[in-house]
Amino acid sequence: MTKPCGTADRLRCPYHGWTYDLEGRLKGVPEIEGTELDKTQFGLVPLAVATWEHFVFVNLDPKASLEAELGELVGQVAPLGLGTLKFAERREYTLQCNWKVFVDNYLERRLPRAAPARGARVDPVRTRTTRSRTSRGSASRARRSTRGAARR
After folding, report:
1. Domain boundary residue among 26, 41, 56?
2. Tens-place pLDDT, residues 119-142
3. Helices (H), 12-137
4. Nearest in space to 101 (alpha carbons), one of 114, 92, 89
5. In a domain? residue 134
6. Whole-angstrom Cα distance, residue 75 to residue 21?
7. Residue 116 pLDDT > 80, yes or no?
């Protein structure tokens, strides 16, 4: 599954080529077929998978509870109406740079001189950071655009 979206009837490791069915059972092992490998011993491990507000969460503990992990975050996020959001578009860019440097720089919204276009859209005075036992977040209201106002 190396495509960004779609469906699959099996899982295949693009590096090793091992193939699994959707229940996690090992089905194919290229280049070592015919050996004494017991495929039943090399299946994928069970994971806890749950959805909330269109998000998919995976936990390495198969007995984990998403509700317990989310805790008070559910009530804090409810006013945003995340469940009503619809996919709008996908944008992909090829950048000749270190991805982490690019992302970190983009996220530095409190430094409008370093990234003036980004900083102009975010009001640092109205930015608030929240923290709880299970989550940390930051929110800011967008500033109204003043572009073109002088030309009118």
Report:
1. 56
2. 445 455 555 555 555 555 555 454
3. 66-70, 73-77, 99-107, 116-121
4. 114
5. yes
6. 37
7. no
